[in-house]
From TrEMBL:
Family: Belongs to the glycosyl hydrolase 1 family.
Name assigned to this protein: Beta-glucosidase 18-like
Gene name as annotated: LOC103326339
Lineage of source species: Eukaryota, Viridiplantae, Streptophyta, Embryophyta, Tracheophyta
One Pfam match: Glyco_hydro_1
Length: 398
Protein backbone atom coordinates (compact mmCIF):
# COMPACT_ATOMS: atom_id res chain seq x y z
CA UNK A 1 0.00 0.00 0.00
CA UNK A 2 1.16 3.58 -0.60
CA UNK A 3 2.17 5.87 2.23
CA UNK A 4 -0.17 8.64 3.34
CA UNK A 5 1.95 11.25 1.55
CA UNK A 6 1.63 9.40 -1.75
CA UNK A 7 -1.96 8.13 -1.70
CA UNK A 8 -3.50 11.42 -2.81
CA UNK A 9 -0.98 11.79 -5.62
CA UNK A 10 -1.57 8.24 -6.86
CA UNK A 11 -5.36 8.52 -6.62
CA UNK A 12 -5.42 11.76 -8.62
CA UNK A 13 -2.95 10.41 -11.18
CA UNK A 14 -4.81 7.14 -11.69
CA UNK A 15 -8.13 8.88 -12.22
CA UNK A 16 -6.62 11.28 -14.76
CA UNK A 17 -4.79 8.70 -16.89
CA UNK A 18 -7.70 6.26 -16.85
CA UNK A 19 -9.71 8.74 -18.92
CA UNK A 20 -7.08 9.09 -21.66
CA UNK A 21 -6.77 7.45 -25.02
CA UNK A 22 -3.53 6.59 -26.83
CA UNK A 23 -1.90 9.42 -28.83
CA UNK A 24 0.98 9.00 -31.22
CA UNK A 25 3.43 8.18 -28.45
CA UNK A 26 6.64 8.72 -30.41
CA UNK A 27 5.97 11.50 -32.90
CA UNK A 28 3.71 13.66 -30.78
CA UNK A 29 4.94 12.99 -27.26
CA UNK A 30 8.58 12.06 -27.84
CA UNK A 31 8.47 8.44 -26.68
CA UNK A 32 10.62 7.57 -23.66
CA UNK A 33 12.44 10.88 -23.95
CA UNK A 34 9.28 12.56 -22.64
CA UNK A 35 7.79 12.38 -19.12
CA UNK A 36 4.38 12.14 -20.83
CA UNK A 37 5.03 8.50 -21.65
CA UNK A 38 5.15 7.70 -17.93
CA UNK A 39 1.43 8.50 -17.71
CA UNK A 40 0.60 6.52 -20.83
CA UNK A 41 2.50 3.54 -19.45
CA UNK A 42 0.57 3.69 -16.18
CA UNK A 43 -2.67 3.81 -18.16
CA UNK A 44 -1.59 0.72 -20.11
CA UNK A 45 -0.43 -1.08 -16.96
CA UNK A 46 -3.69 -0.34 -15.18
CA UNK A 47 -5.67 -1.90 -18.03
CA UNK A 48 -3.48 -5.02 -17.80
CA UNK A 49 -3.87 -5.26 -14.02
CA UNK A 50 -7.62 -4.86 -14.23
CA UNK A 51 -8.07 -7.27 -17.15
CA UNK A 52 -5.72 -10.09 -16.18
CA UNK A 53 -4.90 -9.68 -12.50
CA UNK A 54 -7.32 -12.38 -11.40
CA UNK A 55 -5.10 -14.91 -13.23
CA UNK A 56 -1.64 -13.33 -13.47
CA UNK A 57 0.12 -13.18 -10.13
CA UNK A 58 3.66 -12.34 -11.26
CA UNK A 59 4.15 -9.21 -13.38
CA UNK A 60 7.17 -7.79 -15.21
CA UNK A 61 6.63 -4.11 -15.93
CA UNK A 62 9.44 -3.57 -18.48
CA UNK A 63 11.67 -6.19 -20.02
CA UNK A 64 15.31 -5.08 -20.43
CA UNK A 65 14.98 -1.30 -20.14
CA UNK A 66 18.79 -1.18 -20.22
CA UNK A 67 18.72 -2.73 -23.70
CA UNK A 68 16.06 -0.26 -24.86
CA UNK A 69 18.28 2.61 -23.72
CA UNK A 70 21.30 1.04 -25.40
CA UNK A 71 19.91 -0.10 -28.73
CA UNK A 72 17.19 2.52 -29.26
CA UNK A 73 18.94 5.66 -28.02
CA UNK A 74 22.69 4.92 -28.00
CA UNK A 75 23.30 2.69 -31.04
CA UNK A 76 20.11 3.55 -32.92
CA UNK A 77 19.46 -0.05 -33.98
CA UNK A 78 15.97 -0.37 -32.47
CA UNK A 79 13.03 2.02 -32.86
CA UNK A 80 12.98 4.98 -32.62
CA UNK A 81 16.55 4.65 -33.98
CA UNK A 82 18.15 7.69 -32.37
CA UNK A 83 21.92 7.99 -32.05
CA UNK A 84 24.98 10.10 -32.83
CA UNK A 85 28.62 9.37 -33.80
CA UNK A 86 30.72 7.46 -32.95
CA UNK A 87 27.96 5.03 -31.90
CA UNK A 88 25.85 5.22 -35.03
CA UNK A 89 24.79 7.33 -38.00
CA UNK A 90 21.17 8.20 -37.27
CA UNK A 91 19.23 11.14 -38.68
CA UNK A 92 18.74 12.51 -35.16
CA UNK A 93 19.66 11.81 -31.56
CA UNK A 94 22.36 12.28 -28.92
CA UNK A 95 23.99 9.03 -27.81
CA UNK A 96 25.75 10.68 -24.87
CA UNK A 97 22.57 11.96 -23.21
CA UNK A 98 19.38 10.38 -24.56
CA UNK A 99 19.97 6.85 -23.18
CA UNK A 100 20.09 8.40 -19.70
CA UNK A 101 16.84 10.31 -20.26
CA UNK A 102 15.01 7.33 -21.74
CA UNK A 103 16.07 5.05 -18.89
CA UNK A 104 15.12 7.70 -16.33
CA UNK A 105 11.57 7.87 -17.66
CA UNK A 106 11.24 4.09 -17.92
CA UNK A 107 12.28 3.63 -14.29
CA UNK A 108 9.85 6.26 -13.02
CA UNK A 109 7.07 4.78 -15.17
CA UNK A 110 7.79 1.38 -13.63
CA UNK A 111 7.61 2.78 -10.11
CA UNK A 112 4.35 4.63 -10.80
CA UNK A 113 2.78 1.48 -12.27
CA UNK A 114 3.85 -0.57 -9.24
CA UNK A 115 2.37 1.99 -6.87
CA UNK A 116 -0.89 1.86 -8.81
CA UNK A 117 -0.89 -1.92 -8.54
CA UNK A 118 -0.11 -1.96 -4.83
CA UNK A 119 -2.69 0.71 -4.07
CA UNK A 120 -5.65 -0.35 -6.21
CA UNK A 121 -5.14 -3.96 -7.27
CA UNK A 122 -2.96 -5.82 -4.80
CA UNK A 123 -5.56 -5.87 -1.97
CA UNK A 124 -7.73 -8.19 -4.09
CA UNK A 125 -5.16 -9.81 -6.41
CA UNK A 126 -2.19 -10.36 -4.05
CA UNK A 127 0.32 -10.47 -6.88
CA UNK A 128 4.01 -9.66 -7.24
CA UNK A 129 5.74 -7.14 -9.53
CA UNK A 130 9.32 -7.05 -10.76
CA UNK A 131 11.52 -5.69 -13.51
CA UNK A 132 14.01 -7.50 -15.77
CA UNK A 133 17.50 -6.49 -16.93
CA UNK A 134 19.68 -8.04 -19.57
CA UNK A 135 22.70 -9.04 -17.49
CA UNK A 136 26.04 -9.94 -19.01
CA UNK A 137 28.73 -11.09 -16.61
CA UNK A 138 32.17 -9.55 -17.03
CA UNK A 139 35.78 -10.54 -16.44
CA UNK A 140 38.93 -8.36 -16.66
CA UNK A 141 40.71 -8.54 -19.99
CA UNK A 142 44.08 -8.10 -18.27
CA UNK A 143 45.16 -9.15 -14.81
CA UNK A 144 45.38 -5.53 -13.75
CA UNK A 145 43.62 -3.44 -11.13
CA UNK A 146 42.34 -0.96 -13.72
CA UNK A 147 40.53 -3.72 -15.65
CA UNK A 148 39.12 -5.15 -12.41
CA UNK A 149 37.75 -1.69 -11.61
CA UNK A 150 36.33 -1.55 -15.13
CA UNK A 151 34.45 -4.80 -14.43
CA UNK A 152 32.76 -3.11 -11.48
CA UNK A 153 31.75 -0.21 -13.72
CA UNK A 154 30.50 -2.55 -16.43
CA UNK A 155 28.25 -4.35 -13.96
CA UNK A 156 26.96 -1.03 -12.64
CA UNK A 157 26.24 0.33 -16.12
CA UNK A 158 24.69 -2.92 -17.38
CA UNK A 159 22.90 -4.36 -14.33
CA UNK A 160 22.76 -1.91 -11.42
CA UNK A 161 21.52 0.86 -13.73
CA UNK A 162 18.20 -0.97 -13.68
CA UNK A 163 18.12 -2.47 -10.19
CA UNK A 164 19.75 0.14 -7.89
CA UNK A 165 16.96 2.71 -8.40
CA UNK A 166 14.11 0.23 -7.85
CA UNK A 167 15.75 -1.24 -4.73
CA UNK A 168 17.57 1.73 -3.18
CA UNK A 169 15.90 4.72 -4.85
CA UNK A 170 18.87 6.13 -6.79
CA UNK A 171 21.41 5.41 -9.49
CA UNK A 172 24.65 3.50 -8.82
CA UNK A 173 27.48 5.60 -7.41
CA UNK A 174 29.68 4.27 -10.22
CA UNK A 175 27.40 5.95 -12.78
CA UNK A 176 27.20 9.21 -10.86
CA UNK A 177 30.99 9.27 -10.68
CA UNK A 178 31.30 8.87 -14.47
CA UNK A 179 28.43 11.10 -15.60
CA UNK A 180 28.36 13.81 -12.95
CA UNK A 181 25.61 16.35 -13.56
CA UNK A 182 24.60 14.74 -16.87
CA UNK A 183 22.98 11.83 -15.04
CA UNK A 184 19.35 12.81 -14.32
CA UNK A 185 18.31 13.22 -10.70
CA UNK A 186 15.21 11.83 -9.03
CA UNK A 187 13.07 14.13 -6.93
CA UNK A 188 12.40 13.23 -3.30
CA UNK A 189 8.94 11.92 -4.25
CA UNK A 190 10.36 9.91 -7.14
CA UNK A 191 12.96 8.35 -4.88
CA UNK A 192 10.20 7.38 -2.47
CA UNK A 193 8.23 5.80 -5.31
CA UNK A 194 11.25 3.96 -6.66
CA UNK A 195 12.68 2.61 -3.42
CA UNK A 196 11.45 -0.94 -2.89
CA UNK A 197 9.27 -0.88 -6.01
CA UNK A 198 9.96 -4.53 -6.90
CA UNK A 199 9.05 -7.81 -5.26
CA UNK A 200 11.54 -9.81 -7.35
CA UNK A 201 14.48 -9.33 -9.70
CA UNK A 202 14.45 -10.76 -13.22
CA UNK A 203 17.80 -11.66 -14.79
CA UNK A 204 18.17 -12.35 -18.51
CA UNK A 205 21.60 -13.95 -18.78
CA UNK A 206 23.26 -15.41 -21.84
CA UNK A 207 26.97 -14.76 -21.81
CA UNK A 208 30.14 -13.27 -20.31
CA UNK A 209 32.53 -10.74 -21.86
CA UNK A 210 36.00 -9.39 -21.14
CA UNK A 211 36.29 -5.75 -20.04
CA UNK A 212 39.12 -3.32 -20.74
CA UNK A 213 39.57 -0.03 -18.89
CA UNK A 214 39.45 3.10 -21.06
CA UNK A 215 40.37 5.68 -18.43
CA UNK A 216 44.06 4.84 -18.43
CA UNK A 217 44.16 3.02 -21.79
CA UNK A 218 43.31 4.20 -25.33
CA UNK A 219 40.02 2.74 -26.62
CA UNK A 220 38.19 3.06 -29.95
CA UNK A 221 34.47 3.17 -30.72
CA UNK A 222 33.39 5.44 -27.89
CA UNK A 223 34.79 3.40 -25.03
CA UNK A 224 36.44 6.56 -23.76
CA UNK A 225 33.05 8.26 -23.20
CA UNK A 226 31.05 8.48 -19.96
CA UNK A 227 27.97 6.83 -21.51
CA UNK A 228 30.03 3.65 -21.93
CA UNK A 229 31.47 3.81 -18.42
CA UNK A 230 34.95 4.45 -19.84
CA UNK A 231 35.37 0.82 -20.88
CA UNK A 232 35.32 -1.55 -23.82
CA UNK A 233 33.97 -5.10 -23.91
CA UNK A 234 35.15 -7.95 -26.09
CA UNK A 235 34.70 -11.68 -26.37
CA UNK A 236 38.34 -12.31 -27.26
CA UNK A 237 41.70 -12.22 -25.50
CA UNK A 238 44.73 -12.51 -27.78
CA UNK A 239 42.46 -13.92 -30.46
CA UNK A 240 41.06 -16.65 -28.22
CA UNK A 241 37.31 -16.51 -27.47
CA UNK A 242 36.19 -16.38 -23.84
CA UNK A 243 34.01 -19.41 -24.53
CA UNK A 244 32.65 -21.43 -27.41
CA UNK A 245 31.10 -19.05 -29.97
CA UNK A 246 27.37 -19.27 -30.72
CA UNK A 247 25.21 -17.93 -33.53
CA UNK A 248 25.44 -14.35 -32.18
CA UNK A 249 28.69 -12.39 -32.21
CA UNK A 250 28.67 -11.27 -28.56
CA UNK A 251 27.21 -14.47 -27.08
CA UNK A 252 29.68 -17.13 -25.97
CA UNK A 253 29.19 -20.27 -23.92
CA UNK A 254 30.63 -19.31 -20.51
CA UNK A 255 28.71 -21.31 -17.88
CA UNK A 256 30.66 -19.91 -14.91
CA UNK A 257 29.11 -16.54 -15.68
CA UNK A 258 25.70 -17.73 -14.52
CA UNK A 259 26.90 -18.45 -10.99
CA UNK A 260 28.86 -15.20 -10.92
CA UNK A 261 26.04 -12.93 -12.09
CA UNK A 262 23.57 -14.50 -9.67
CA UNK A 263 26.07 -14.06 -6.85
CA UNK A 264 26.57 -10.41 -7.86
CA UNK A 265 22.84 -9.75 -7.72
CA UNK A 266 22.56 -11.70 -4.47
CA UNK A 267 25.27 -9.63 -2.78
CA UNK A 268 24.28 -6.23 -4.12
CA UNK A 269 20.57 -6.56 -3.37
CA UNK A 270 20.57 -8.49 -0.09
CA UNK A 271 19.48 -11.72 -1.74
CA UNK A 272 16.11 -10.52 -2.99
CA UNK A 273 14.01 -13.21 -4.71
CA UNK A 274 15.28 -13.73 -8.26
CA UNK A 275 14.07 -15.35 -11.45
CA UNK A 276 16.33 -16.27 -14.34
CA UNK A 277 13.81 -14.96 -16.84
CA UNK A 278 15.83 -15.80 -19.98
CA UNK A 279 18.69 -18.19 -20.73
CA UNK A 280 19.44 -19.96 -23.99
CA UNK A 281 21.50 -20.03 -27.16
CA UNK A 282 21.32 -19.99 -30.92
CA UNK A 283 23.64 -22.43 -32.63
CA UNK A 284 26.54 -21.47 -34.91
CA UNK A 285 25.10 -23.61 -37.68
CA UNK A 286 21.49 -24.58 -38.22
CA UNK A 287 22.30 -27.64 -40.33
CA UNK A 288 21.45 -30.00 -37.46
CA UNK A 289 18.91 -27.82 -35.69
CA UNK A 290 16.67 -30.76 -34.75
CA UNK A 291 19.64 -32.72 -33.36
CA UNK A 292 20.68 -29.78 -31.17
CA UNK A 293 23.07 -31.48 -28.76
CA UNK A 294 25.06 -28.26 -28.39
CA UNK A 295 21.93 -26.54 -27.05
CA UNK A 296 21.41 -29.38 -24.57
CA UNK A 297 25.03 -29.06 -23.42
CA UNK A 298 24.54 -25.30 -23.07
CA UNK A 299 21.55 -25.69 -20.78
CA UNK A 300 23.16 -28.49 -18.80
CA UNK A 301 26.24 -26.41 -18.07
CA UNK A 302 24.35 -23.21 -17.25
CA UNK A 303 21.87 -25.02 -15.03
CA UNK A 304 24.72 -26.71 -13.18
CA UNK A 305 26.25 -23.28 -12.60
CA UNK A 306 22.90 -21.92 -11.43
CA UNK A 307 22.49 -24.88 -9.09
CA UNK A 308 25.85 -24.02 -7.48
CA UNK A 309 24.62 -20.48 -6.86
CA UNK A 310 21.44 -21.81 -5.26
CA UNK A 311 23.38 -24.20 -3.05
CA UNK A 312 25.40 -21.17 -1.92
CA UNK A 313 22.19 -19.53 -0.75
CA UNK A 314 20.93 -17.49 -3.72
CA UNK A 315 17.15 -17.06 -3.51
CA UNK A 316 16.38 -18.07 -7.10
CA UNK A 317 12.68 -18.84 -7.56
CA UNK A 318 12.53 -19.87 -11.22
CA UNK A 319 14.33 -20.52 -14.49
CA UNK A 320 12.93 -19.89 -17.97
CA UNK A 321 14.44 -21.20 -21.19
CA UNK A 322 14.64 -18.77 -24.09
CA UNK A 323 12.69 -19.98 -25.77
CA UNK A 324 10.01 -22.65 -26.05
CA UNK A 325 9.96 -22.30 -29.84
CA UNK A 326 11.82 -20.45 -32.57
CA UNK A 327 10.51 -16.92 -32.80
CA UNK A 328 11.22 -13.41 -34.09
CA UNK A 329 14.63 -12.31 -32.76
CA UNK A 330 14.66 -8.52 -33.11
CA UNK A 331 17.02 -7.37 -35.89
CA UNK A 332 17.90 -10.97 -36.69
CA UNK A 333 14.29 -11.69 -37.57
CA UNK A 334 13.71 -15.39 -38.14
CA UNK A 335 17.34 -16.14 -39.02
CA UNK A 336 18.36 -17.07 -35.46
CA UNK A 337 16.71 -19.95 -33.65
CA UNK A 338 16.69 -20.23 -29.84
CA UNK A 339 13.73 -22.56 -29.49
CA UNK A 340 13.31 -26.04 -28.09
CA UNK A 341 10.71 -26.50 -30.84
CA UNK A 342 11.57 -26.00 -34.50
CA UNK A 343 9.17 -23.79 -36.46
CA UNK A 344 8.87 -24.27 -40.21
CA UNK A 345 8.59 -20.72 -41.55
CA UNK A 346 6.53 -21.82 -44.55
CA UNK A 347 3.93 -24.03 -42.84
CA UNK A 348 4.38 -22.88 -39.19
CA UNK A 349 4.53 -26.55 -38.23
CA UNK A 350 6.28 -27.05 -34.88
CA UNK A 351 8.64 -29.99 -34.38
CA UNK A 352 10.27 -30.82 -31.05
CA UNK A 353 14.06 -30.69 -31.17
CA UNK A 354 16.22 -33.09 -29.20
CA UNK A 355 16.50 -30.37 -26.56
CA UNK A 356 12.73 -30.38 -26.02
CA UNK A 357 12.80 -34.02 -24.99
CA UNK A 358 15.86 -33.45 -22.83
CA UNK A 359 14.28 -30.50 -21.03
CA UNK A 360 11.08 -32.43 -20.38
CA UNK A 361 13.15 -35.19 -18.79
CA UNK A 362 15.14 -32.63 -16.84
CA UNK A 363 11.97 -31.20 -15.32
CA UNK A 364 11.02 -34.72 -14.22
CA UNK A 365 14.42 -35.10 -12.47
CA UNK A 366 15.57 -37.70 -14.99
CA UNK A 367 18.77 -35.97 -16.22
CA UNK A 368 22.32 -35.79 -14.94
CA UNK A 369 25.42 -33.92 -15.97
CA UNK A 370 28.64 -35.48 -17.27
CA UNK A 371 29.88 -36.14 -13.73
CA UNK A 372 26.68 -38.02 -12.91
CA UNK A 373 25.77 -35.32 -10.40
CA UNK A 374 22.09 -34.40 -10.24
CA UNK A 375 21.65 -30.86 -11.53
CA UNK A 376 17.88 -30.66 -11.53
CA UNK A 377 16.91 -27.35 -10.02
CA UNK A 378 13.69 -28.92 -8.88
CA UNK A 379 15.63 -31.34 -6.67
CA UNK A 380 18.06 -28.66 -5.48
CA UNK A 381 15.29 -26.35 -4.40
CA UNK A 382 13.15 -29.13 -3.00
CA UNK A 383 15.88 -29.62 -0.40
CA UNK A 384 15.44 -25.95 0.54
CA UNK A 385 11.63 -26.28 0.66
CA UNK A 386 11.17 -23.91 -2.30
CA UNK A 387 9.36 -24.33 -5.57
CA UNK A 388 11.56 -23.27 -8.47
CA UNK A 389 10.73 -24.46 -11.91
CA UNK A 390 7.06 -23.38 -12.08
CA UNK A 391 6.19 -21.04 -9.25
CA UNK A 392 2.97 -19.81 -10.90
CA UNK A 393 1.13 -20.91 -14.05
CA UNK A 394 1.38 -17.48 -15.64
CA UNK A 395 4.04 -14.75 -15.62
CA UNK A 396 3.23 -11.68 -17.69
CA UNK A 397 5.37 -9.01 -19.29
CA UNK A 398 3.82 -5.68 -20.03
Amino acid sequence: MCSDSLCGFIQEHYQSVSKKGYPDLEQRDGGWLSPLLREEFVHFASICFESFGDRVKHWVTINEPNMVADFAYLRGLYPPARCSPPFGNCSTGNSDIEPLIGMHNMLIAHAMAVEIYRTFFWPKQNGFVGIVAHAFMYEPLRDEERDRDAVDRALAFNVAWTFDPVVYGDYPAEMRHCHGLELPRFSAKEKQLLRGSIDFIGVNHYSTLYVKDCIHSPCPSGGDRPIMGFLNTTGYRDGVPIGEPTGLDDFFVVPRGMEKIIDYVKQRYNNMPMFVTENGCTLQTQENELEDRDRINFHKSYLASLARAIRSGADVRGYFVWSVMDNFEWLNGYTKRFGLYYVDRETLERTPKLSAGWFASFLRNHTHNNDNEEISLASVVHNQNKVISQMEPEVAEM
